[in-house]
Write a structure and sequence with these properties.
Length: about 170
């Protein structure tokens, strides 16, 4: 079956959770999480859960586990993917992933390079699967979130969920 056929048979509505990792933002000032939720809704997906947690590995892992347990098909996080001491999102979530999707991070950094140059290498954006759900780990910058959502996640979200739901 071709990619076009896979996309044609993909669910148009995916249940999603959004988790923002930040020590300084609130739900009212969280423009990156709001952008994710807005873009998902505009694309016809459901935002079933939205959380904001501090840059703490246990809090991050617990929030992602909670959203997955809630039954989300996809979890999209924003924040904590840099290399600063408090940026521990990658470590907190990597342990929850059963299968890595290295192509996501590679493509995201390549696209980011076009916008911000060599600083793109500082991003530890990643993706992977947990059970029958996909988890995307995005930087905290709203422009980075929009780039990832518009160029990578939204075009393939239904396709990815379709593949994860397949039994054979």
């Amino acid at each position: 079956m071709s990619v076009a056929e896979h996309r044609a048979n993909a669910p148009a509505n995916v249940s999603c959770g959004v988790v923002t990792i930040s020590d300084s933002r609130t739900l009212d000032t969280d423009t990156s999480g709001a952008a994710i939720a807005d873009l998902l809704s505009r694309a016809g997906h459901t935002v079933a859960a939205r959380r904001l947690v501090p840059d703490d590995p246990k809090a991050v892992a617990d929030a992602v586990r909670d959203v997955l347990a809630f039954g989300a098909d996809a979890v999209i996080t924003t924040g904590g993917t840099g290399i600063a001491h408090r940026d521990t999102t990658f470590e907190a979530i990597a342990g929850l992933l059963e299968r890595q999707l290295p192509g996501f991070g590679e493509l995201f950094r390549a696209l980011s390079f076009q916008d911000i140059g060599s600083a793109a290498m500082l991003s530890r954006a990643t993706a992977g699967t947990s059970g029958r759900a996909v988890v995307f780990v995005l930087p905290g910058s709203e422009s980075a979130v929009r780039l990832a959502m518009e160029k990578l996640i939204l075009p393939e979200l239904g396709h990815i969920v379709r593949e994860l739901r397949r039994s054979t």
